Amino acid sequence: MRLTHPTDIPNFIKCPSRDIYFIRPPEGPKNITIQSARPVVINNGGFRMTQNIDRYFFLVATLFAVLGMGFGISMGMVQDFSLQSMHSHLLLIGWATLALFGIGYRLDFAAKNKLAVAHFIFAVAGAAAMPLGIYCAVRQNQHGVAIIGSLLILVATLLFLVNVWRRR
Fold first, then answer.
1. 75: Cβ contacts below 8 Å, ≥ 6 apart
2. What CA dihedral angle connects 106, 109, 111 and 115, to 10 degrees?
3. Residue 32 placed within a domain
4. Total structural domains within the chain
5. Is residue 152 pLDDT above 80, yes or no?
6. pLDDT at 86
7. In sequence order, what are the beta bridge partners of 13?
8. Which of residues 43 and 12 earns the better pLDDT score?
9. Whose C-alpha in 4, 40, 58, 140 is 20 to 30 A from the C-alpha of 92?
10. Cα distance between residue 21 and residue 37, in whole Å
11. Residue 119 has pLDDT above 90, yes or no
12. What distances in angstroms separate CA 12 from CA 23, 31, 96, one per listed residue?
């Protein structure tokens, strides 16, 4: 039998203020409190994403670090430094900022919830769009993608602020 929701099991109860489920002790009374129940991990895809959000941030940050370093090395080999701002944004936003977000989640400064997943999506999209936008701005004098990338990073940082604020 496949369960569609944890509350389909009669002994499961949901904490009203958070997305945490508890299992009622089988011999206990029916009117137990949340404090006397055992917490249960629901291991579906969304839950795994939220609980490991710090690892996802750090994995993507490391990929940006490799890209940024490789791009910097290639700029040095051809001695063309016209895209040094693209290189620095790959490393500062892609590597440093995303890694700091991941460390913030790992050290439990921010809540690991659905908002954290939205934060991850905005941050990665912004970190990818910003260097591409800088490339378009330098090579083709088109600034639209850089503006979108910087706005995505701003939204991601505001989402992180909300998550840190809620965690306090």
1. 81, 83, 84, 87
2. -90
3. yes
4. 2
5. yes
6. 94
7. 22
8. 12
9. 140
10. 9
11. yes
12. 5, 12, 41
| Residue 131 in tokens | 């260097």
Residue 156, sorted as left (phi over 0), alpha (psi -120 to 50) or beta, turns out to be: alpha
Six token digits for residue 144: 């639209």
Q: pLDDT grade, residue 28 (50/70/90)? A: low
- What would the mean pLDDT of 67-77 be, rounded to a whole number? 95
- Does residue 1 sit within a domain? no
State both tokens at 156: 């991601």
**pTM, full prediction:** 0.71
Residue 114's SS3 state is: helix
d(CA 161, CA 77): 40
Average pLDDT in the chain? 82
The whole-number average pLDDT for the span 34-47 is 47
Q: Is 78 helix (H, G, I), strand (E, B) or coil?
A: helix
- Enter the DSSP assignment of 3: -
Residue length of the chain: 168
